[in-house]
Design a protein that fits this description.
This is Ligase-associated DNA damage response exonuclease. GO terms for molecular function: exonuclease activity; ligase activity. With 341 residues, this protein is an alpha/beta fold. It has ten helices and 19 strands. The strands form three sheets. Strands 7-8-9-10-11-18-19 form a seven-stranded mixed beta sheet, with helices on one face. Helix 1 packs across helix 4.
Length: 341
């Protein structure tokens, strides 16, 4: 038995007649989170976690038809019991639990199992079949703890401040930016790009408390910037806008910095492996703990990861989807909104 089909429109639940994170417009779309590769424009009706609503309205339009649910509550759709459970990925991210005739499926979307200080912590959900990402599904990807990551970042900031340098962080606008803001609160004044500020304002309408920030632009006075912290989206990396920040030191924050650093750090000063996805051990421990008899592996190192799961006795299948690097998907959306900036 299965409650899921992988179709040209997206992940479909035939018993309930709805889709989860479809990549083409459908009548009823259940959304795991607000990143651009999972929440796409054009569907007739959306269902998402309550904290994702203002994010999706900011990105897809205020007039979209959307209903919301909190974590843990359930809804019956054509006989299928549906509930949302924390994925720990970003604010409002949810795993979608489906139950029908005693059979349970969970579509995890993107997930992270360590608490990041701002997203609702990940909740393990037992199931018969589990859909997992594999963005960092290789053994090389093993993250430092949240404490270690931010100790390293704060030490870098302190060194910059001793030299009167401005610490500039490249981090995508939804998820990573807010995580940095929370983790660096108190380390200096926080300035953010307008694309990040726009999402911050949307998130605040859902009742989420974020640190105080100021909007940075090329006309921001030097005295307001020097020695402080500026958070910018990846679309600005290498542009003249960054060069206009006086005495700046630039760091990239991305899980890819674990192994891709040498290639991408040529024009920056530092890189930190900060990821909103589970690492290799996080993926494996989660999949084993769900107890799922069938695992579907989506975006990332799908072939390699599915092969490994089968080798250790977990029935896994690689599936093709249109999910991808949320950084790339989100920043292309930002460029469109910001007129190419």
């Amino acid at each position: 038995m299965s409650l899921l089909r992988f179709t040209k429109e997206g992940i479909y639940c035939p018993q309930g007649d709805f889709y989860i994170d479809p990549w083409k417009p459908v009548k009823y779309a259940v959304i795991t989170h607000g990143h651009g590769d999972h929440a796409r424009w054009g569907s007739d009706h959306y269902l998402a976690h309550e904290a994702s609503k203002p994010i999706m309205q900011s990105r897809l339009g205020a007039d979209i038809s959307i209903e919301t649910m909190p974590y843990g509550e359930s809804k019956i759709i054509n006989g299928v019991k549906l509930s949302l459970h924390p994925a720990g990925h970003i604010i409002g991210s949810a795993q979608i639990r489906l139950e029908y005739n005693g059979f349970v499926s969970v579509v995890s979307g993107d997930y992270k199992i360590e608490y990041d200080g701002i997203s609702t912590p990940f909740e393990l959900v037992k199931c018969n079949e589990f859909v997992t990402e594999s963005t960092f599904g290789l053994p090389i990807y093993n993250w430092l703890s949240q404490q270690q990551i931010f100790d390293n970042i704060k030490n870098w900031i302190a060194g910059n401040q001793r030299q009167q340098r401005t610490s500039i962080f490249i981090a995508y606008s939804l998820g990573k930016a807010q995580r940095l803001m929370k983790g660096l609160e108190g380390s200096g004044s926080l300035l953010v790009h307008s694309s990040i500020d726009r999402l911050n304002n949307a998130i605040k309408t859902a009742g989420i408390v974020l640190p105080d920030t100021k909007v940075w632009n090329v006309d921001t006075p030097k005295v307001d910037v020097q020695g402080n912290i500026v958070i910018l989206p990846p679309s600005l990396l290498g542009t003249n806008m960054i060069k206009k920040i006086p005495n700046g030191a630039v760091a990239i924050c991305s899980g890819w910095m674990q192994i891709r650093g040498n290639r991408r750090w040529q024009s920056v000063d530092a890189g930190f492996a900060v990821s909103d996805h589970a690492d290799w051990q996080g993926l494996l421990s989660t999949i084993k703990a769900t107890g799922a008899e069938q695992v579907f592996v989506t975006h990332g190192y799908t072939a390699t990861f599915a092969k490994y799961l089968n080798e250790i006795g977990i029935n896994a299948k690689e599936v093709n989807t249109q999910y991808g690097n949320d950084e790339e998907a989100d920043e292309s959306a930002n460029r469109e909104k910001e007129g190419g900036i």
